[in-house]
């Protein structure tokens, strides 16, 4: 009897472990009115191949895999995952509910490398049509009811050079407008929508100004991005604020009117990675401007950014050296203090600049603020909602134990691995799940020798060289896991 009522009491709280975050001034704010710093990891096991339409599979479709990974990510200490490539028509209820119970938010890309899955960076008007826009709306429908849905990315690195900067901006702002209008009309809460930029310094700040300004100077302008993020790989090895160019980012975004954060970081030019940037990102100067960041990436794929390696034959996972290093860097920080900064009064933050071509520095950048109209048929879908609606909902999770084996780098098995469900209002932080793992000092190899899930994913093998951008002093390697593939697939689609 006692046991039973305890179970009921426990399960009653499970469906609501995290409460939705809101945006106040230029920050995310948690239910206790504290400014929320994203401590994230990019989550796309299998790379682009992690999405398989024929098998009805995407990174959030298999509860057993999510249980395994949510437990590992809890141990690492993160509170957010970013997922790039989702199928709106598969059921995500169990995975979303597991991550929710684990205190982990989700930032979701609405795009996909599938045909009609993204806006192209070349001739974008050819890819802006009803089937594509409907897809972005369908992802919103699929994830809008989960309390741990943190934000949607309307685009990822679609502007990455002078040529794309000359064509894409009005289309990208139009896609953001359409998704924001859909959220306003069909969601119970204001889920933020924004753009994830390539850290190509020639176009970065123009993109930032272009997407975050307000056409009439009013912050509720429907085409203005609610958030702005960048994929930044300029801190390599044991770097510092100056050498990495981080100082220029803090300065460049210092007047932001929306939350700014790293949607990817973790340069791997120097291996094993040291993740000394973690101390900088959550340090005082940085966190007065930025809202944290997302480490690229959870699984080891062909481009070698993995924290863990997955054996796709038996779904066992082996932790890699970078996992232990990153965990140690997170554990060094005082999270009570970092996540305990009270929000300022709403409306007291920097005001958005009024959209004006004067905001744009580069001659190559299309700073036209007259946006393309919605494509034919889209106004109807926007008015009536996606049909049929693939909406999900949080469900009760009772099983938290990982079905799959998880091993330390030395091959020893981590026993009793399970998600530790958190209570209401809590998000995950280092130390919450204190499952015993190997001590980092004894980890030598930087890559496991198990079969990885790297396979033949074309999306994960390309490491783009974006340092060619003139005037950028810092070499940056952008995995562009999603973007590389988007461009390839979108090109083929025509
Ligand atoms: C819109 O998306 C839904 C969900 O994926 C799909 O069932 C429907 O066929 C799509 N409609 C159009 C017009 O593309
Ligand atoms: C931020 O605003 C201050 C005060 O208006 C201004 O002096 C400064 O140039 C601005 N910085 C940037 C990067 O726009
Ligand atoms: C701006 O875009 C609109 C809509 O595409 C177009 O009609 C107009 O000519 C453009 N203005 C300039 C100056 O290019
Ligand atoms: C790695 O290789 C060693 C020696 O061949 C083997 O004993 C060990 O089990 C392997 N580890 C994994 C995780 O496969
Ligand atoms: C990247 O591009 C720059 C400029 O085009 C070039 O100097 C550099 O050698 C390239 N690096 C790699 C690794 O290809």
UniProtKB/TrEMBL annotation:
Residues 422-466 are annotated as: Disordered. Its EC number is 2.4.1.-. Residues 424-438 have a biased composition (Polar residues). It is a lipid-anchor; GPI-anchor. GO terms for biological process: fungal-type cell wall (1->3)-beta-D-glucan biosynthetic process; fungal-type cell wall organization. It is found in: Cell membrane. InterPro entries: GH, Glucanosyltransferase. Residues 1-17 form the signal peptide. Gene3D superfamilies: Glycosidases (3.20.20.80). The keyword Glycoprotein applies. GO terms for molecular function: 1,3-beta-glucanosyltransferase activity. The keyword Lipoprotein applies. Belongs to the glycosyl hydrolase 72 family. PANTHER family: 1,3-BETA-GLUCANOSYLTRANSFERASE GAS1, 1,3-BETA-GLUCANOSYLTRANSFERASE GAS3-RELATED. This is 1,3-beta-glucanosyltransferase. It comes from Neurospora crassa (strain ATCC 24698 / 74-OR23-1A / CBS 708.71 / DSM 1257 / FGSC 987).
